Amino acid sequence: MKKNVCIFALMACICFFSSLVQSQMVEEILTEDVSIQRALSSNIELLEAAQDIDFASQKIVESKVLYFPNFDFNLNCSHFNSSFLTLVSDSMSQAPILLPDGKQDLRYSARISVWQNIYTGGRIKTANKLTKINKEKTENERDIIKNKIINDVKLIFNECLYYRELLEIDIAKLRSVELGRMQLSSENIKKLRRKCIEEQLSFEKELLNLLAVMGKDINSIVRISGKAIPKIKQLDFDKCLFLAYQFKPELKSSQTQEKLDSLSLNLLSLQKFPKITLGAAQEWLGARLFKDDMNWYISLNANIPIFDGGSLFTKIKQGRIKIRQSVLARSKAEREVRLSISKSFLEYNFWRKRAIDAKLLEKKHYDEDDIELIRNLNRSYCNLEFAVGVDLDSY
Predict the structure, then answer these.
(1) How far apart are CA 273 and CA 123, in angstroms?
(2) What is the pLDDT of residues 202-248, one digit of tens each?
(3) I need a labelling partner for 177 at 20 to 30 A (CA). Which of 145, 204, 319, 331 fits?
């Protein structure tokens, strides 16, 4: 009986571990869209960019708080020996502490105050605009990373399809030779087998690149799903350029930087305007707080800057230099984008004309030359999409 129980337990353990191993070694099917989504969800740089956007959002909330009043509650206990009236500065409150003349060992005070900015010369409004544009800048930086990841996945996936379909064609030739449907010399058979091995190696290397971009374990078992379909589309250069000016994150980032520098200069210029605040406070003095010696006041305060030694003028000049630099950087980015689109558009049109002449859309089966042509055509299309900065299939 015990022997049967032991055998049963052993068989159960074997079944459990075998099922566990099988569950861990399940083959995953990857399409181009699935690969892109996996890469976007696991990329470290993209996750860091998302944190930067969250931080910029909190800075917007912080700047909006500047519109609200400030409330303070202060408790003070002073031990002193003064022969005459003494004024003590208090960093926690806008009102100083007044110590009366004559010897007194201890002094207690409590104060509750509220201060509201009435006029700041537009400083708070400009600071809020700065935080919003700074968030746009971080979003553009995230889109730059996102477009790079999508382009990398598309190029690698295109290579995987290319080597896989080449390998399928050559394996089919070897099977035809084995079945006697095709006659090849022994030397050509050796070359064909060697070619299959090289294509298998290239396919596995591209598959490793795909797993690396997706952030998956390189020992993962995956299968590429999909077929190399020629992307033949009538595109207009002016439309591509228009889409780039509208969506290209590099261009938007340079434009945003120019806005940031302009607002920073405006914020510096606003420092010469007065700042008006309104405040109210109530104070209790004496040994028995909140019972004896109560004071209150309402205060209107105006701070008018006159001369700070000339540092403000220097800062304004620095801001104007930054604006000129940002304008030059935007012009440089526009020229680089236009050049990149021109080259990619020229290359795509070349392969597109080759594909139309080869009548790829009319064919049901492709040979090696067709597969090579589709590879170059789709790769040039991906490069054009990356140059424009938008998915051209949506436009």
Answers:
(1) 9
(2) 999 999 999 999 988 888 888 899 888 999 999 999 999 999 999 99
(3) 204
